[in-house]
Structures are given as structure tokens and as C-alpha cells.
């Protein structure tokens, strides 16, 4: 971790690097989903309508305000059996395709893709 103009950044002073993940993108998406669920619950309990607003910039400011860790926790890589359990294989136009399984399960409601990916132009551009 380096200091650039008084701020902590990843990388070295002469070569700052991006965060290892799109921290603000993912966090803002999760906050939007959470806000939507809270709004739906309030509507079911109290009626009315609710407005959920999120901002990438504001999320970034909030995350930055949490502070910076001096060191990252050490984690062990996932074992092969754990990786296999997280994956799902589907047949596609390009052959077998491995992807991550859906991270949630909903009773009585299938979660996941209903069809595999297909080449561009396979389906007409229409709305059903």
C-alpha cells in the first residue's frame, strides 16, 4: 500500500493500482437490492410507495471512510472439491460451459439460467 497525495492506494507510489475487485460497483448493487427489499417489505406492511436511491460516488466515500487495513487477512485457497460444488456445467453452442451456481436457493422457485448462452443472431430481436 502506498501514499499518493496523502491518500492510501494499492500499488507503489510511482504506480498506483486498481482495487482487486469493483468494490463500489458490487457494494452499490447490493445496497440497491437491499433497499428494494426493504421498500417492498414496507409497502406490504404499511402500503405506499418508496424511492430507493444509490450512488457509486457515495458508496465509494462510505467505503473510504471505513479506513484502510494495514494487512490483508490470510486465506487458504479453495480445495478442488469446494470449487466443484460451486460450479455448474451446461451444454452450449460452443461445447460444455462451466459457471458459478446461483448463490441462493428459493423454495419452489428455480434459480438460475433457463437456457444456455447462444451465438448472436440466434433469436430474432423481438419483445415477447
Structure at a glance:
The chain is of the alpha+beta class and 128 residues long. It has helices spanning 23-46, 56-65, 80-86, and strands at 2-4, 7-12, 15-17, 87-92, 95-100.
Largest sheet: 3 strands, antiparallel
Order of helices and strands: EEEHHHEE
Structural class: alpha+beta
Low-confidence runs of at least 5 consecutive residues? 1-8
Straight-line distance between termini: 51 Å
Q: Considering DSSP H and I runs of 4 or more, what fraction of the residues is helical?
A: 25-40%
Strand residue content: 15-25%
Q: What is the gyration radius calculated from CA atoms?
A: 21 Å
> How many DSSP helices?
3
Count of extended strands: 5
Task: Tell me what the structure shows.
This protein is α+β, with helices and mostly antiparallel strands. 32% of the residues lie in helices and 19% in strands. The strands form two sheets. A three-stranded antiparallel beta sheet has the order 1-2-3, with no helix packed on it. Strands 4-5 form a two-stranded antiparallel ribbon. The longest helix has 24 residues, at 23-46. The radius of gyration is 21 Å and the shape is extended. Mean pLDDT is 84; it is low at 1-8.
Spell out the blueprint of helices and strands.
Elements: E1 2-4, E2 7-12, E3 15-17, H1 23-46, H2 56-65, H3 80-86, E4 87-92, E5 95-100
Helix pairs in contact: 1-2
State the main characteristics.
single chain, alpha+beta, disordered N terminus, 128 residues, 3-stranded antiparallel beta sheet
Amino acid at each position: 500500500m502506498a501514499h499518493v497525495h496523502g491518500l492510501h492506494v494499492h500499488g507503489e507510489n510511482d504506480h498506483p493500482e486498481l482495487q482487486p475487485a469493483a468494490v463500489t460497483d458490487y457494494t452499490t448493487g447490493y445496497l440497491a437490492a437491499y433497499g428494494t427489499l426493504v421498500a417492498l417489505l414496507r409497502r406490504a406492511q404499511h402500503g405506499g410507495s418508496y424511492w430507493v436511491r444509490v450512488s457509486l460516488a457515495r458508496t465509494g466515500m462510505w467505503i473510504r471512510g471505513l479506513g484502510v487495513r494495514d494487512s490483508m487477512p490470510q486465506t487458504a485457497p479453495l480445495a478442488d472439491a469446494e470449487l466443484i460444488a460451486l460450479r455448474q456445467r451446461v451444454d452450449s453452442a460452443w461445447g460444455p460451459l462451466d459457471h458459478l451456481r446461483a448463490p441462493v436457493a428459493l423454495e419452489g422457485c428455480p434459480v438460475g439460467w433457463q437456457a444456455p448462452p447462444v451465438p448472436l443472431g440466434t433469436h430474432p430481436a423481438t419483445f415477447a
